[in-house]
Amino acid sequence: MTTPDFTSFKEKLLQQRASLVAQLATLRGGPISRVEASADHFAGHTDSAAQTATERDLEFALDDHETTELVAVDAALQRIAAGTYGRCTACDVKIPLARLQVAPEAARCISCQEKAEQR
User: Fold this and answer.
1) Which terminal CB of the chain, N or C, has fewer other CB atoms within 10 Å?
2) Which of 61, 76, 58 is nearest to 10 (CA)?
3) CA 22 – CA 71 distance, rounded (Å)
4) Which positions ≥6 away from 110 have C-beta within 8 Å?
5) Which residues pair with 87 in a beta bridge?
6) Neighbours of 77 (CB within 10 A)
7) Taking a C-beta distance cutoff of 8 angstroms, is the pair 20, 83 a contact?
8) Helix (H) or strand (E) holding 32
9) How many CB atoms lie within 10 A of CB 116?
C-alpha cells in the first residue's frame, strides 16, 4: 500500500472518530459520565420501573458500542503512525484493500476476525 492510501484512510478514520465523539457526547448529555447522564435522564420518570430499566440498558449498550468503536478507530490511527496499518494484527498478512475501504478500523484479516468471533 502506498503512502497516499494511508493518508486517505487516516482522513476517513479521523472523520469517523469525530463523529463517534459527537455521538458519545450526545448520548451522555455532554462531558459527563454515562452514569451521571443516565441518572439525570431518568430522574423523575413516570414510566414503569421495567420500562425505565430497559431504556437505561439500551442507552448503556449504545454507549458501550460507540466506545468500543472509538477504541478500534484510535488503534487504527496508532497503527498508521507506527507503520503497521493494513497488516493483520494476528497473522501479519496484508489485509485486502476492499476490507479496509469498508472498515478502515479493521485490525484483522477476515479469517482471523472470524476465528476471534467464534471464541
Assistant:
1) C
2) 76
3) 14
4) 96, 99
5) 94
6) 19
7) no
8) none
9) 11
Q: Which residue has the cell 471464541?
A: 119
Q: Which three cell numbers stand for residue 104?
A: 478502515
SS3 87: strand
Cell numbers at residue 76, please? Answer: 487504527
Instruction: Read off the C-alpha cell for 33.
Output: 459520565
AA letter at 68: T
- Per-residue model confidence as pLDDT tens for the chain (119 residues): 445 468 899 999 999 999 999 888 887 666 655 556 556 555 566 667 777 777 777 777 777 888 899 999 999 999 999 999 999 999 999 999 999 999 999 999 999 999 999 98
CA distance 66 to 44: 27
